[in-house]
Amino acid sequence: MNPQISSGNFDAFFAWAPWVVGIVIYLAFYIAKRHENATAHATRAGAAEPTYACAGCGRRGTREQMVAMDHGGAVGWHCANCASQTASVAH
Fold this sequence. Notes:
- The longest helix is centred in the first third of the chain and has 27 residues, at 7-33.
- This protein has two helices and four strands.
- By secondary structure, it is of the alpha+beta class.
- The N and C termini lie far apart (101 Å).
- The chain has a domain at 52-90.
- Strand 1 (52-53) and strand 2 (60-61) form a beta hairpin.
- The relative contact order is 0.09.
- 42% of the residues lie in helices and 18% in strands.
């Protein structure tokens, strides 16, 4: 009995082994994950109204709740509270 592996069998094993191992790993993850549900469902692109963060305190609000203030050509959004404080400091 010859205990050595022929070079053809050796080459064939290492040619197919990565493919077989990859497919086995893929199938294992597929079987493990196939019945999982998403924890949060995605919303449609236009469903939510965009919000703006206040440049002073970070409070978020819709465009109607914010006051636009010019800062040297750039627009910064402020909530009503920060806008009134900024206006009183400027005068």
